[in-house]
Amino acid sequence: MARYLLPLFFGVLGTVVLVSLGVWQVQRMGEKEAYLSDISARIGAVAADLPAKPDPVSDRFLAVRAAGQFTGEELHVLASTRDVGAVYRIVAAFETSDGRRVMVDRGWIKPPQKDVTRPKVDAMIEGNLHWPNEVDSYTPQNDLAANIWFARDVSVMADALGAEPVLIVLRETSENDPTVTPLPVDTSGIANDHLEYIVTWFGLAIVWVAMTLYYLHRLRKSEKA
User: What angle do CA 87, 146, 169 make, to 5 degrees?
Assistant: First the structure.
């Protein structure tokens, strides 16, 4: 009987640990889904006036509106879309009617349109405040001479455009014939892999139980032999 105790102990311990991890991931998935639901509601809310001093934490994804003029100054951020492939995001300087200078992510253009001059244009815009976290150790250095950026870094882009470190990702514009296709904020870029982890941990728990039972069965057979 004693020879069964150690494998049985590890079998039970491993099962408890794996099931606990699976349950924890179920809880985390519920929290993440509630978080994504809150963000979606915030993104789609009725737009408010642009705050005087937006906060990167409390005002992230806030729906805002502003009237003013695109100045024609812009940065080109290399990106990609599922349907088109390689594109450039246009991050443009926008002077509001009350004298502020902020940035607007107007959306995407195809690479051949990169060096096309986009003139000054008055517009009423609606969009969402965003401070993307796109820079990591693998991000290449921006090619400032060619105006090719590899990530949206709000503070660095603001310095380049002489604007406040405020980025509005465009959702709607009053322009009659916008030259840039808006690429609004959504939750698709926020990872939610908890279901995969749930399947992994509970799957491993089932395998662990099966292996423990098989090992105990082999021990019993060897005893009888």
Answer: 45
